[in-house]
Amino acid sequence: MNKFKKNMKEIYENVNTNGLNIANILADHNLLVKKYKKVIIQPTALLIDPSKIFIGEGSWIGSYSNLRPVNNKIIIGKNVLIAQMVSIISDQYDYKNIDLLIKKSLIKGKDVVIEDDVWIGTGSIILPGVNIGKHSVVGAGSVVTKSIPQYCVAVGNPAKIKKRYSFKLKKWFKYSLLIKLFFKLNIL
Ligand SMILES: CC(C)(COP(=O)(O)OP(=O)(O)OC[C@H]1O[C@@H](n2cnc3c(N)ncnc32)[C@H](O)[C@@H]1OP(=O)(O)O)[C@@H](O)C(=O)NCCC(=O)NCCS
Fold first, then answer.
1. Residue 153 in contact with ligand 1 by CB distance below 6 A
2. What is the pTM of this model?
3. C-alpha neighbours within 13 Å on the C-beta side of residue 8
């Protein structure tokens, strides 16, 4: 283990108060390139614990992106474009027990799933339990707190659907309450 990785491991073990052992912290880029064949991972992307990160071929992980599974998994399909400075977070502290320091509380959360052919705009944050459906787009700077269906464009904080593709009419629709209802009723 090189000195930098050793220091990081020690720092993490010292601050870590709930028994996590993030031994794979900062897997070096050459190891990532070997592990994720047919995936482009830009050198400054940070993949914490690659044993919990699954990426399909043809996908791209942009500079300074931060993929951070602890107890849960991050599952990324094929041909997914993750732009720069995107954070994908699958875990969080259980702050609701007020008798425990938050940093000593359980880590919970849920897997994040990003289906094939999704594009996530720069600076976005994807939170635990979110599923982003095939060929959907997340606008730059969005915070995705809830799942997004397939073939949608979602933007903002919290991310809301702005456009959705109808296979029936073969066109994109600007999303509104009425259009949402039509999709629900299978009219679109
Ligand atoms: C999401 C995106 C693809 C939408 O493109 P588009 O379909 O041309 O969208 P439009 O310009 O028609 O915008 C539709 C609406 O969403 C809003 N919007 C678009 N992108 C937004 C964003 N990132 N955050 C908040 N609102 C956004 C627009 O203001 C517009 O709102 P309105 O309907 O109230 O007027 C684009 O805006 C975007 O964010 N691209 C990401 C770019 C990027 O990160 N590149 C990294 C290199 S890989």
1. yes
2. 0.88
3. 13
How many structural domains comprise the chain?
1
What's the CATH code of the domain at 46? 2.160.10.10
Q: Whose CA is nearest to atom 44 of ligand 1?
A: 121
Ligand 1 mean position to 100 CA, how many Å? 41
Assess whether the C-beta atom of 162 lies below 6 angstroms from ligand 1: yes
Q: Which residues of 58-94 are buried (b: 16+ CB within 10 A; e: fewer)?
A: ebbbbebbebbbbbbebbbbbbbbbbbbbbbbbbbbe
Q: What is the CA radius of gyration of the chain?
A: 18
| pLDDT by 10s per residue, the chain, length 188 | 566 556 545 544 444 434 444 444 455 677 788 888 899 999 889 998 888 999 999 999 999 999 989 899 999 999 999 999 999 999 999 999 999 999 888 788 999 999 999 999 999 999 999 999 999 999 999 999 999 999 999 999 999 999 999 999 999 999 999 999 999 999 99
Q: Which domain holds residue 50?
A: 3-163
| Residue 187 domain-assigned (yes or no) | no
The rounded Å distance from CA 139 to ligand 1 centre is: 5
Instruction: Report if residue 88 sits inside a domain.
Output: yes
